[in-house]
Amino acid sequence: MNRQYLVQRWEGTLLSLDSNYLPFGRTQQNLKDFRGAPLSSTGKLQGKRFSEYDFSVSDFKDVWLEDCLFEDSAFCEASFVNVSDHGNQFTRCSFEKTDFPL
Fold first, then answer.
1. The pLDDT of residue 75
2. Closest C-alpha to 68, from 85, 52, 82
3. What is the C-alpha separation between 29 and 68, in angstroms, rounded?
4. In what order do the strands lie in the sheet with 89-91?
5. By C-alpha distance, which of 58, 13, 14 is closest to 34?
6. Which is nearest to 95 in space by CA: 79, 86, 27?
7. Nearest in space to 85 (alpha carbons), one of 51, 49, 44
8. Is the pLDDT of residue 88 over 80?
9. How far apart are CA 101 and CA 34, in angstroms?
10. Residue 22 CA: distances (Å) to CA of 30, 49, 51, 56
11. Quick one: which of 1, 82, 8 has its CA closest to 38?
12. Residue 87 and residue 34: Cα distance in Å, rounded?
């Protein structure tokens, strides 16, 4: 799947980060398929736990992340432009080609 498709498939789709909500099922790696998710629309994620998610190509631009736990998850080619990181834990996560501007 290409980048454009992964982003466009979210148009008109509810973005819920409930662990039982799987709008696109699981990836071939058996991760919860949130690739291309427009997480910038959430504004703030606080005290959440994410285990076995694929957030590749997702947009975290301007998101405030606080006291979240991300484990066994992928963030390949995700955008973390202007993210505020406060006390989060990333355990066994991959960040290949992720945009972390300084």
1. 97
2. 85
3. 23
4. 49-51, 69-71, 89-91
5. 58
6. 79
7. 44
8. yes
9. 22
10. 12, 15, 13, 15
11. 8
12. 23
Q: Give the chain's length.
A: 102
Give pLDDT tens digits for 6-52: 999 999 998 998 888 999 999 999 999 999 999 999 999 999 999 99
CB neighbours of residue 6 within 10 Å: 20
pLDDT given at position 45: 95
Q: How far apart are CA 52 and CA 75, in angstroms?
A: 11
Report pLDDT for 102.
59
- Give the rounded distance of the alpha carbon of 88 from its chain centre: 14
Instruction: Reply yes or no on whether the pLDDT at 81 is more than 70.
Output: yes
Our measurement of the distance from residue 25's CA atom to the centroid of its chain's CA atoms, rounded to an integer in Å, reads 15
* Each residue's pLDDT tens digit, 50-59: 999 999 999 9
Eight-class DSSP state of 22: -
